[in-house]
Design a protein that fits this description.
- The chain is α/β, with parallel strands linked by helices.
- The chain has a domain at 88-109 and 232-429: Rossmann fold (3-Layer(aba) Sandwich), CATH 3.40.50.1100.
- It is built from 23 helices and 15 strands.
- It has helices spanning 15-21, 40-45, 51-62, 68-78, 81-84, 112-116, 119-130, 145-154, 173-180, 196-208, 210-219, 231-250, 270-280, 297-304, 329-336, 341-354, 361-370, 378-392, 398-414, 432-440, 449-460, 466-470, 487-493; strands at residues 3-5, 30-32, 91-95, 98-102, 135-141, 160-167, 187-193, 221-224, 260-265, 285-292, 306-308, 356-358, 371-375, 420-424, 481-483.
- The strands form 4 sheets. The protein has a 6-stranded mixed β-sheet with strand order 3-4-14-9-10-13, with helices on both faces. The chain has a 5-stranded parallel β-sheet with strand order 8-5-6-7-15, with helices on both faces. A two-stranded antiparallel sheet has the order 1-2.
- Helix 1 (15-21) crosses helix 7 (119-130) and helix 20 (432-440) crosses helix 21 (449-460).
- The relative contact order is 0.14.
- It binds pyridoxal-5'-phosphate.
- Pyridoxal-5'-phosphate (PLP) is lined by residues 110-112, 145, 228, 265-271, 320-321, 399, 425-426.
Length: 496
């Protein structure tokens, strides 16, 4: 299997090359040249395998320059019991025709662990395969979840170093605590005086600084990204759609071959795109429901074919979906246009220059036949958390609640009662303040994150993730806060 750029101006490369580089040389994203197919018998055969073996079945189709044994080493290390427990992604049946796929049983209690625990293993092996001898320096600008998940994934991984920048006043108390207590010889964390955009701009400037990267290249360092534009972050996410499907068979909810729906709380369009790849590979999926919060640029796009980022940005209680430019949409456009890289490049250029683009009517028809878009506001999100808890005794975080509510809207509009799986992307404890606000219908005291964890536990009996509880006792290792125009300097001074 070889990889092409969505903008069509680079040579075909191996998966190891795509993973080492992250972004294609023409500014596009790497996509597989063709989509591998899985037969129903092979899918059905996953039913009695553990998650790690299911992962190997899927990854082998895409990472053809890796041997089965290599992949087994990677997935066994990534999804080890001490990190994910006995079942990395349980499918919980919440009512007759709805299951919830809990993707947050990893070390940081958010779904990004599913990819970021595996990526470092794929990356270090890819570096060896491509003859990369430099140390890879991962730079991350984070609004919360990615930073911690990347730190956990890369801490003490040979041949790599990771530097994370977060907006010092722009992440939740728990998220900050998770990052500033991170141990590891090769990790560094900085707060930024400014917002997430300032941090992101700073990282982009460093990536774009040719003189700096040339100089560091000579000293033995190469920059890379752990962002979801990297194929090595996307491909692990395809696995759990297959895993959920066979678990639904196992639970007697469906028979092999039945089409089901998935609903995905979406930000950068990585998670839901992985579902689309699963469908193209032959997994019986009818509709992929794209759930957004008040930053509803994707809902508008799916309904109208116009992607327009020129709009107000809202800070919501589902902050990991607060995003106006969903990078992975570029990969979808490539697929629905049957690999028309010229057209994709035009759309992206227009987005960059004018702030919007409109896809042609054939592309829009294809998109609408696969996806349904709905968005959910803050009140609806909280209402769903409290109602689902009281109806089914199932506790959801804010992102999952957006997805659940979007599914209700879809069912109301279409009367489609097909068995549907809701992707649950964070533990309710990660957003304990908003979850408690939803349950108790009143504001919660600020600045005491651990008291809120205990309160939520007392009210619901749901277990607090032990790692989150342990944060209270961990020493602070990274207290530095720097102006956003000093990020480059911070990188230079902290290379090890
Ligand atoms: C990152 C994230 C999302 C959005 O996923 P995308 O792949 O960016 O669409 C949703 N929920 C949570 C909790 C996340 O951390």
């Amino acid at each position: 299997m070889l990889y092409v750029s969505t903008r069509g101006k680079t040579d075909l490369v191996s998966s190891a090359h795509a993973i080492t580089r992250g972004l294609a040389g023409d500014g596009g994203l790497f996509v597989p040249q063709n989509i591998p197919a899985m037969r129903m018998v092979d899918i059905k055969a996953m039913e009695h395998k553990p998650y790690t073996e299911r992962a190997i079945d899927v990854l082998l189709q895409y990472l053809t320059d890796f041997s089965e044994d290599e992949l087994r080493e990677c997935v066994n290390a990534a999804y080890a019991k001490d990190k994910f427990g006995d079942n990395p992604v349980p499918l919980v049946q919440v009512n007759e025709n709805t299951g919830v796929l809990e993707l947050w049983h990893g070390p940081t209690s958010a779904f990004k662990d599913m990819a970021l625990q595996l990526l470092p293993h794929l990356l270090t092996r890819s570096m060896k395969k491509t003859g990369e001898t430099n140390k890879v320096v991962i730079l991350v600008a984070t609004s919360g979840d990615t930073g911690k998940a990347a730190l956990e994934g890369f801490a003490d991984v040979e041949g790599t170093q990771i530097i994370v920048f977060y907006p010092s006043e722009g992440v939740s108390d728990i998220q900050k605590r998770q990052m500033i207590t991170q141990a590891g010889k090769n990790v560094k964390v900085f707060g930024i005086e400014g917002n997430f955009d300032d941090a992101q701009r700073g990282v982009k400037e460093i990536f774009g600084n040719k003189a700096m990267s040339d100089e560091l290249e000579k000293k033995g360092y190469t920059f890379s990204s752990a962002n979801s534009i990297n194929w090595g972050r996307l491909v692990p996410q395809i696995v759990y759609y297959f895993s959920a499907y066979v678990d639904a068979i196992k639970a007697g909810k469906i028979s092999a071959g039945d089409a089901i729906n998935f609903v995905v709380p979406t930000g950068n369009f990585g998670d839901i795109l992985a579902g689309y790849y699963a469908k193209l590979m032959g997994l019986p999926i009818d509709r992929l429901l794209c759930a957004s919060n008040s930053n509803n640029v994707l809902t508008d796009f799916i309904n109208s074919g116009v992607y327009d980022k020129r709009r107000d940005f809202y800070k919501t209680i589902s902050p990991s979906m607060d995003i106006l430019v969903s990078s992975n949409l570029e990969r979808l456009l490539y697929n629905v246009s049957d690999g028309d890289a010229v057209r994709v490049a035009e759309y992206m250029q227009r987005l960059n220059n004018e702030g919007f683009y409109q896809v042609d009517s054939d592309d829009l028809k294809r998109i609408q036949s696969e996806f349904f878009g709905a968005w959910v506001d803050e009140l609806e999100t909280k209402e769903a958390i409290s109602r689902i808890y009281s109806d089914y005794h199932y506790l959801m975080d804010t992102h999952t609640a957006v997805a659940w509510r979007a599914l209700e809207k879809y069912r109301f509009l279409t009367s489609d009662e097909t068995y549907t799986i809701v992707l649950s992307t964070a533990s309710p404890y990660k957003f304990a303040d908003s979850v408690l606000e939803a349950l108790d219908d009143k504001e919660q005291p600020k600045g005491e994150p651990f008291a809120l964890l205990h309160k939520l536990n007392e009210e619901t009996g749901v277990e607090i993730p032990p790692r989150m509880l342990a944060l209270e006792e961990l020493p602070v290792l990274h207290s530095e806060v720097i102006p956003s125009d000093k990020m480059e300097l911070a990188v230079m001074k902290n290379l090890v």
